[in-house]
Amino acid sequence: MTVEIVTAAVLVIGDEILSGRTKDKNIGYIADYCTAIGVDLKEVRVVSDDEAAIVDAVNALRAKYTYVFTTGGIGPTHDDITADCVAKAFGVPLDFHPEAIAIMKERLAKSGGELNEARMRMTRIPRGAALVANKVSGAPGFWIGNVITMAGIPAVMQAMLDEVAPKLKTGAKLMSESIRADAKEGDVGTELGVVAKEHPDTIIGSYPFLDETMAPNTNIVVRSRDAEKLAAAKAAIEAMLVKVRAQLGAA
Amino acid sequence: MTVEIVTAAVLVIGDEILSGRTKDKNIGYIADYCTAIGVDLKEVRVVSDDEAAIVDAVNALRAKYTYVFTTGGIGPTHDDITADCVAKAFGVPLDFHPEAIAIMKERLAKSGGELNEARMRMTRIPRGAALVANKVSGAPGFWIGNVITMAGIPAVMQAMLDEVAPKLKTGAKLMSESIRADAKEGDVGTELGVVAKEHPDTIIGSYPFLDETMAPNTNIVVRSRDAEKLAAAKAAIEAMLVKVRAQLGAA
């Protein structure tokens, strides 16, 4: 059985993230979302509002992964240049999009405000792109090739992700099990490495934490696309932990 | 007067960030820190615990920026491969480091625990690197060339950053002023673009938000390394806002 692996990257665009002024909330959200629907998020980049940086990142990432999700830079001001950059990356013109204009007009009829030059910026869409509806604030994102361009404001980005998710190819979900080691990471690391080598179709991660007594403890997470292999690795880790804890207790 | 621009990138290493299991807290912290000390954070990447991905990212980023800060992947388990990858990126061997071993022994004498194979992993340092002290939990980071490798646990990373910060070259600080527009972003965008063009030595960003009455509002942030140019741009924006708000009121 061949299991298709569907991969993705996130490209966060904005000076405000790199200056620290705004703390990104989209990376973790998209990461959880991808895991839930069976898409492997493989890379994230954050770049500034700089044309060359954005174009280079879009082209590098779209060549490597099934999907690229961009966030940020699609508002009405001079520093919102994501649409320009995606168009440039794909070598297509940036057109005023009739449907985007109609959406903006309908919104403005309700909320008040003029369809001025600034707001018209938000109706510029790379030629050939499909619109991604924005049920929160109107101005749409878009989808061209394997690149999905969304807003930076978390509530808007989340609504856009809900719009595109049903249309994404998804792979077999990576299932996971979490095992509390009740031991220090340094005390189980050697043996855990042996288990990891013996279970090559699983991904085993080790994450230290301080438990409720403030003692160093470890969570071990096993992930696999195969339920049987996942269960076998989990059982091997639990057996290893029983052995190691007994040795530590006896020492 | 030539002002030196000191740049940096952050490379976050870890499957747990990309799966969503762990939400990164280091990017925003390092971003604030860089802004405070006069280092321009230009790019962030997050990659998985994969040798090729880490080596490629280290080499791409160290060629482009003054400094590269890596976080994550320097613990005692098989999935901690950052030291291996940085050594490979620099083409140097990874040695057991006598000072790192001494630090680990001293720690373990107090906390209990054996200097086993897993913990010895944490004493492997790329040849030629200087250690970065870890006042929180002992196991050091390191600094080789322009790459500074730190832990992923926020408290440990923060302590390591405090260790290296006094030794970093820093540039002229980017000063900033924030101006509340009391207008919708779409109503000020066109005029703000004109001001931005007239003040090329400043960086002007526009950030929509919902104010205390839940009305759409806008924060405008001006940044510059030159206090006079910053003040001039701020004054120009305030004058523009007075004019635009008067027009909107009259409409």
Automatic annotation (TrEMBL), chains A, B:
<dbReference type="Pfam" id="PF00994">
    <property type="entry name" value="MoCF_biosynth"/>
</dbReference>
<dbReference type="InterPro" id="IPR036425">
    <property type="entry name" value="MoaB/Mog-like_dom_sf"/>
</dbReference>
<dbReference type="InterPro" id="IPR001453">
    <property type="entry name" value="MoaB/Mog_dom"/>
</dbReference>
<dbReference type="Pfam" id="PF24102">
    <property type="entry name" value="FLAD1_M"/>
</dbReference>
<protein>
    <submittedName>
        <fullName>Competence/damage-inducible protein A</fullName>
    </submittedName>
</protein>
<feature type="domain" description="MoaB/Mog">
    <location>
        <begin position="9"/>
        <end position="171"/>
    </location>
</feature>
<dbReference type="InterPro" id="IPR056596">
    <property type="entry name" value="FLAD1_M"/>
</dbReference>
<dbReference type="InterPro" id="IPR050101">
    <property type="entry name" value="CinA"/>
</dbReference>
